[in-house]
Write a structure and sequence with these properties.
Blueprint lengths: L1 E6 L11 H8 L4 E6 L12 E2 L9 E2 L1 H11 L13 E11 L2 H8 L3 E5 L8 H8 L4 E5 L9 H12 L10 H4 L18 E2 L2 E2 L9 H19 L1 H6 L7 H9 L12
Parallel strand pairs: 1-2, 1-6, 5-6, 5-7
Antiparallel strand pairs: 3-4, 8-9
Helix pairs in contact: 2-4, 3-5
The protein binds (6-phenylpyridin-3-yl)methanamine.
Length: about 260
């Protein structure tokens, strides 16, 4: 997969040389380039922002440098290697929510282009103009405001890179992860069996794999109901059986309205 990032702070992306993302880059699975937006400015001060039309606080990113950046990184003409246009991703608190499902979708793309805004964001015409030529997605990591899109890009790239073929050694560790089943995962423990007066639950040391699977399912359900009732509400009707509902009931959680006995 090819990835281009445009930012006024390219130094933010130094961590992408490290760990498994660094390894994916070194091995050629991930071809990543970081670009300084100021490359595409022409005034002596290399200006990237200006005051907002209509007034209000803060500054808006000028369209001209962004236009030239996108022309350079997503040219209209097909390159000799026959590459397709990138998918443009723009982190913004006003974007669609980033999810594990979107991470899978992005992992299937051949070329991603990230545009990192700062200040109050990028002039809307940049995105409107780009949308006439390529797929553009404004994406949000959650309902909070950062100084800019850089940290969001680090998060998205980490979620996507670990889904690329060959990046995770053990294929089994992908399908049991939190969110793959629509529930949070049960708590995990390692040795020693007792630590500072806290014991590992007896069932996990029992060797009874049926009982362990049931315990983990119950813990996952109780945790999810307590912390993420929105995920319980989104489960397909048929995914909660009688034993699941009994576990939730023991935990003091109300059965979902409309759920029928099964
Ligand atoms: C802030 C440009 N959802 C997290 C998130 C993503 C991007 C931004 N803020 C929060 C942001 C200022 C300018 C992007």
């Amino acid at each position: 997969m090819r990835v281009d990032i445009v930012s006024i702070f390219p130094e933010y992306f130094a961590p992408l040389d490290l760990s498994l993302i660094g390894k994916a880059r070194a091995g050629g699975t991930l071809r990543l380039a970081v670009h300084d937006l100021r490359t595409w400015t022409h005034d002596v001060h290399r200006t990237v922002d200006d005051t907002p039309y209509g007034g209000g606080p803060g500054m808006v990113m000028r369209p001209e440098p962004w236009g030239e950046a996108l022309d350079a990184l997503a040219p209209d003409e097909l390159s000799p290697d026959g590459h397709t246009l990138p998918r443009l991703l723009v982190p913004s608190p006003a974007g669609v929510p980033f999810t594990q499902a979107m991470a899978h979708e992005l992992a299937a793309e051949s070329h991603l282009l990230f545009a990192c805004g700062r200040y109050e964001g990028i002039d809307q015409r940049v995105l409107d103009h780009a949308a006439a030529r390529m797929r553009v997605t404004e994406v949000s990591l959650g309902d909070y405001v950062l100084f800019g899109g850089e940290v969001a890009v680090l998060v998205i790239l980490e979620a996507v890179t670990r889904l690329l073929p060959g990046v995770l050694g053990n294929a089994g560790s992908l399908d049991e992860e939190s969110h793959a089943h629509g529930l949070l995962e049960a708590p995990m423990y390692t040795k020693p069996a007792e630590w500072r007066g806290h014991e590992v639950p007896e069932v996990l040391r029992s060797g009874d794999h049926g009982k362990i699977a049931r315990w983990r399912r119950d813990e996952a359900l109780l945790r999810t109901a307590a912390r993420r009732p929105d995920l319980i509400a989104a489960l397909p009707l048929e995914s909660l059986d009688k034993r699941d509902r009994a576990a939730l009931d023991r935990g003091g959680f109300q059965p979902r309205a409309g759920d029928v006995a099964k």
